[in-house]
Amino acid sequence: MEKFEINILGCGAALPTPRRLGSSQVVNIREKLFMLDCAEGTQMAFRKSRLSFSHLQAIFLTHLHGDHVFGLLGLLSTFGLLGRIQELHIYGPKDLQRVFQPQIDYFCTDAPYRIILHEIDTQTPHTIYEDRSVIVTTLPLTHRVPCCGYLFQEKPTPRHIRRDMIDYYHIPIAHINNIKAGMDWTQADGTIIPNDRLTTPPDPVRSYAYCTDTAYRPPLADLLQDVTCLYHEATFTHEHALLAKKTHHSTATQTAEIAKAAHAHQLILGHFSSRYKTEVPLLQEAQQVFPNTILAEDGMKIVL
Amino acid sequence: MEKFEINILGCGAALPTPRRLGSSQVVNIREKLFMLDCAEGTQMAFRKSRLSFSHLQAIFLTHLHGDHVFGLLGLLSTFGLLGRIQELHIYGPKDLQRVFQPQIDYFCTDAPYRIILHEIDTQTPHTIYEDRSVIVTTLPLTHRVPCCGYLFQEKPTPRHIRRDMIDYYHIPIAHINNIKAGMDWTQADGTIIPNDRLTTPPDPVRSYAYCTDTAYRPPLADLLQDVTCLYHEATFTHEHALLAKKTHHSTATQTAEIAKAAHAHQLILGHFSSRYKTEVPLLQEAQQVFPNTILAEDGMKIVL
Question: Pairing state of beta strands A266-270 and B127-130?
Fold first, then answer.
């Protein structure tokens, strides 16, 4: 299977601690890297993860709260010092340009690469990035400021060739791509060899959804049907449901309800309030609704 | 002796690494805290040091390069979330307001405390802060942008009372402050008891100078005469002297020359270029000129 990995650089909430940074992740799809949010300390955590800065294609910001963006300037500035020349696209909600362009102009004047800021509509799901292997779509969320999550969907890959059968039927190389695409093979005598004798099915298509920060938003599940892995904020336990409502965050139970309604394969809880000494109660709470749940942790890598 | 400690939160140069943050220190004078520069990651390092956020009086920024200021917004935002109400004064060169006020307005709108930005003249040494125990003066430096260092000078403390002698001469409590201030004591019969029989000398006055970033600037030594402890950047070894000149930084040798000319008691080297795998050559180079030199390290505490 091609590489599709999630690197969690930070998964804390508003107050970063020495143990937990604010929100930041790197999605690695076939060695192309995509960053999700960029909290203070992200560039150091990125280095620690041993991922390559130069493979970063784009940064997707969910919303303009400090614990999701305060590492951006440092990262951009470091890329400049390291001599990056490939342009970098940054996607985020309204105000992205007003807030960051003056800072980029001031602190990254000598940067040898172009930084392109894209303000996106956070309230209508739409595709904002696409290449040969992946499509990235926005996921409207409900927070105190404009906010959206992001869904990464792998594009279907071709069927796998059965080399033994290709040799057996003496199929020329020039036809292999057609066979991978699902076509049958017609021999010189007119005999048709059905494709499923020549190939095995393609790898299943995988997907990853990053949903933070958000109040409980049941319609979100419709956009996440069958998602391979769902990262969803679970700032509070059910005990603090009122506080969650007031601050537009989710409880672990609500998060698990979303995963269940979406028929997600796996749920990762993140964005934990720093009030909890341990996140085990959040995990237990979610597992009662959606058993295949794990807790995010800074430095964790998830292989899809 | 009253407390006078330097806490080095970060001492790296432009490229922060997991081992070394950019520039940031906290000076602790009798439990009043003063911050020097504020690189990305400062708030996490501050927490790790177990110093109290609420004792922070002021922040002094040397210049507006990212590796000295990218932690400011995160720190200010965290203070707001923690409910700080005491106003906070931030001192820095020209452009401080233009660059940071819009960001503060955007990200710290709900902060329950006032943040006051002071733009200072970096090219004339002058006092910018004074309280009962300390005077802070600017130290003009030579860098690619307006930049100054800061000199912390303890105010002289009173002489120490000799309790045994006070008891012996039956001196009333109301007169103790005069005696501490150096006055003699006249007994009922007119006999004069000289002050040095009643007291011992005050603690020596200590001082700390923070000088980064700067090219080699010999006149700086005149402002640092007899300084107790000098922190001075030593970005490069002598081997890279041309690069130091070009980028307006200092070599370890130049730094040691400043310490020697200033008759400093101790020198701390900092702001090491990330190109060096080890800083030992920088230390050895400086010690040839000024033996009482040490290398700064993230997390180090210096007791004056």
Answer: unpaired
ipTM for the complex shown? 0.90
| CB-nearest partner of B73 from A18, A47, A70 | A70
* A114 vs A158 pLDDT, higher one: A114
- CA B223 to centroid of chain Cα atoms: 15
Q: Are B230 and B268 in contact (CB under 8 A)?
A: yes
**Helix, strand, or coil (residue A36):** strand
Measured CA distances, B142 to A107, A250, A285, B248, B250 (Å): 19, 51, 58, 7, 10
Contact B302, B8 (CB under 8 A): yes
Helices (H) and strands (E) counted in chain B, each on its own, are: 11, 18
At A19 the pLDDT is 83
Look up residue B53 and give its two tokens: 């956020």
Q: Give B226's DSSP letter.
A: T
Peptide bond into A184 cis (omega under 30): no
Alpha carbon distance A234, B211 (integer Å): 45
Minimum Cα–Cα distance from A95: chain B residue: B106
On whether the CB atoms of residues A210 and A149 are closer than 8 A, the answer is yes
| Ordered domains of chain B (ranges, CATH) | 4-157+203-297 (3.60.15.10), 160-200 (no CATH)
Could you confirm whether B222 is annotated as catalytic? no
Total-model pTM: 0.91
Closest CA to B23 of B42, B4, B5, B6: B42
Q: In this complex, which of B18, B82, B99 lies closest to A44 when CB atoms are compared?
A: B18
Query: How far is Cα A272 from Cα A259, in angstroms, rounded to an integer?
Result: 17
Which pLDDT value is given to residue A16?
Answer: 82
Q: What is the pLDDT of residues A214-263, one digit of tens each?
A: 999 999 999 999 999 999 999 999 999 999 999 999 999 999 999 999 99
Pairing of strands B4-10, B301-303: antiparallel
Chain A residues with CB-CB distance to B73 below 8 A = 66, 70
Residue-wise pLDDT tens digits, B56-86: 999 999 999 999 999 999 999 999 999 999 9
Q: How far apart are CA A243 and CA A245, in angstroms?
A: 5
Mutation target vs A (from B70, B104, B144; most A CBs, 10 A cutoff): B70
Note the pLDDT of residue A101: 96
Q: How far is CA A199 from the centre of its chain?
A: 31
Question: CB count, 10 Å around CB of B85?
Answer: 10
B144-168 pLDDT, tens digit per residue, is: 999 999 999 999 988 999 999 999 9
